[in-house]
Amino acid sequence: MNQENFIRRYFIVGERRFSNYWWATLIFIGSVGFLFTGVSSYLNMVNFSISFLSNNEIFNSIPGFNFIFQNMFHNSTTETINFFPQGLLMCFYGSLGFLLSLYWWFLIFWNVGGGFNEFNKKENFIRIFRWGYPGKNRKIDLYYTLKEVESIRVEIQQGLDSQRTIFLKFKGNREIPITGIGQPLTLQEIEKQASELANFLQVSLEGL
Description:
By secondary structure, the chain is of the alpha+beta class.
């Protein structure tokens, strides 16, 4: 018998999904645009204030003042929007979006929720491995023996936030979800995986 008859391994994608890359990039670009517009409106307000100063005879009498004003401020911004309140709000929402995208990129980099489920008949163990947040729980690595498994249970919740989850049911009514979070499998995929796993472990299948 080949190794596939003794070992089954199912990989969990975690946060490194295409949709997360897409949304993190989109939010980052949008937040930078908001911040740029808000800061530009602030610089435009500063430009207006300095324009008033540059027309003042007292400041014009200061050597080099006009030269500094013309080169540093006059051509640095274009007329956009008023800083109060539109520009200030755009800076606020831009900052929130930037922090959100940064957090999302960290989740992708850490691959939170990613890992694998290994079912090993050769050495008689089940291994549930997941990547977590940095710290003492960065690696979640659980081991169980095959004889502890009582059945495979499938839970399907239809609706706006539909969930399809496969549980390992152990003796003593303990249950552990083994499917990924955030990207539910299709009904056909979860039926196929649950049936294959139940046949492989030679236990009953509940919920289908």
